Amino acid sequence: MKSSTPIYRLKHHARRMARDQKLPLHAALDHIATGEGFRNWSHLSACHGQLPEVEDLYAALAPGDLVISAARPGQGKTLLALALAIEAMKAGHQALFFSLDYTAQDMIGLFHKLGVNPAGLDGRFTFDSSDQISAGYITAHMDSTPPGTLAVVDYLQLLDQRRENPDLMSQIRALRSFALERRITVICISQVDRSYDPARQAFPTLADVRLPNPLDLGLFNKACFLNNGKIRLEAIDAAS
């Protein structure tokens, strides 16, 4: 047996239940687990195997990282990116979410799915859905952000859709330089080719990333792949 809902999402549901119903967190976790068909939270966690928690994923990121987060539609990559942004804010940092796909109302819905009230973030979160989003736009709007800031770009394949924008390779190089120089973490959400077959491989790889335009994926130094409620974070060898 395995829950179809990512464990980080279930944990956020439990925290919200514990807060709203004034329950001990362990009781809320067990309640969520039984609702998913498990004996208790420990049973659910064991069945998920080595699935990393969002807290663990965030701890594995570092200022200066440029991360590609890739999955097929419906696997929770946008929700995971927002959860990582929330972890950054919990650590006292700023978070920015640049989206060419989602609206502000969509983002509020994602916050609610994670059991977080965006009104209580003390101004540490910025959402931007401008049609002008590109690497140059992002770096200009982050010119005064301090080290430790986490930025999400949603999503990679749309960055060069406007003819006046630089090519995708140039934009990712610019984001890489900016992340390193300013000591911020940038996560780029990415699509995966339809040819990826989860029945044959547990996770997508860099070879499965959909690239309508040329891009050296070695510009990223970490990759996060999602599939079927599981997550894998790995380092990227620039020489590969």
Topology as H/E string? Answer: HHHHEHEHEHEHEEE
Per DSSP E runs of 2 or more residues, the count of β-strands stands at 7
Q: Whole-number radius of gyration?
A: 18 Å
Please identify the top-level CATH class of the largest domain: Alpha Beta
Strand content: 15-25%
Number of H- or I-type helical stretches? 8
Kindly identify the CATH topology of the largest domain: Rossmann fold
Query: Structural class of the helix and strand makeup?
Result: alpha/beta
From the N-terminal CA to the C-terminal CA, the straight-line distance is 37 Å
Helix content: 25-40%
- Biggest pleated sheet: 7 strands, mixed
| Tally of separate domains | 2
Mean pLDDT: 90
- The CATH superfamily of the largest domain is P-loop containing nucleotide triphosphate hydrolases
The low-confidence parts are none
Q: Quickly give the CATH architecture of the largest domain.
A: 3-Layer(aba) Sandwich
SSE topology:
Blueprint: H1 7-21, H2 25-35, H3 41-47, H4 54-60, E1 66-70, H5 77-90, E2 95-99, H6 104-113, E3 125-128, H7 135-141, E4 150-154, H8 168-182, E5 185-190, E6 222-227, E7 230-235
Helix pairs in contact: 1-2, 2-3, 4-5, 7-8
Short structural summary:
This protein has 240 residues and is an alpha/beta fold.
Describe the structure.
This protein has 240 residues and is of the alpha/beta class. It has two domains: 7-47, no CATH class; 54-235, 3-Layer(aba) Sandwich (Rossmann fold). Helix content is 36%, strand content 15%. It is built from eight helices and seven strands. The chain has a seven-stranded mixed β-sheet with strand order 3-2-4-5-1-6-7. α8 links the parallel β4 and β5. α1 packs across α2, α2 packs across α3 (41-47) and α4 packs across α5. The radius of gyration is 18 Å and the shape is globular. The model has no long low-confidence stretch (mean pLDDT 90).
